[in-house]
Amino acid sequence: MTAERAADDVTGRDGLVFADPEGLGIGLVVADTTDAPLAAHHPEIPSEHALLGFEGVRAYTHDPERSRALLERLMGARELRPGTWELRGERRGGTITYDPAPAGAMAIPGAGTVHHVAWGTTVEDHPAWFARLQQAGVQSSPIIDRHYFKAIYYREPSGVLFELSDDEPGFTVDVPLERLGEVVILPPQLEPHRDAIVANLTPLPDPRASWTTTP
User: Which one of 57, 84, 123, 210 has the minimum C-beta count within 10 Å?
Assistant: First the structure.
């Protein structure tokens, strides 16, 4: 995996840009925020190297102006620069940047792509957001119980699929926090298909295999 050093065009701060094994572009940027960190703690990762949160997402569109009214009037976003909006709640915020879609290219879902952009809300506010979408005439899914959280899905005018999810009960409803990531966890309705699902998963490489030690 090769990373390039580059200034983030949204924040202007230093960053590293690279692609995951399936071709999905990822950037690590130096954040300057008062948001509480979302850092996970692990004995093999020094705290100064821990990821602190999710800064933002990027999406392709032919006309970001189509999304302005929904982002600003309905969702309360503010424009940081042309094509980039910030959404901020009581605890933290994030950005979405619309990049020009490649000429003649069509979106094909699958490996190396992102299915949807998820925005978080609380259990208490989630029903009010559903009512807000309906009152604005936005076509959306009903509130769907995902076992780990409840979600609402809708497409914004540029065609990006948005998800509004609440924050309870969380992934520790099935597995203790200290064991998260050790095994594949599935919601109850998918457990009967566990063997077929696991058989089609590509194991993530063990980063320890590339570590070098000094005598």
Answer: 210
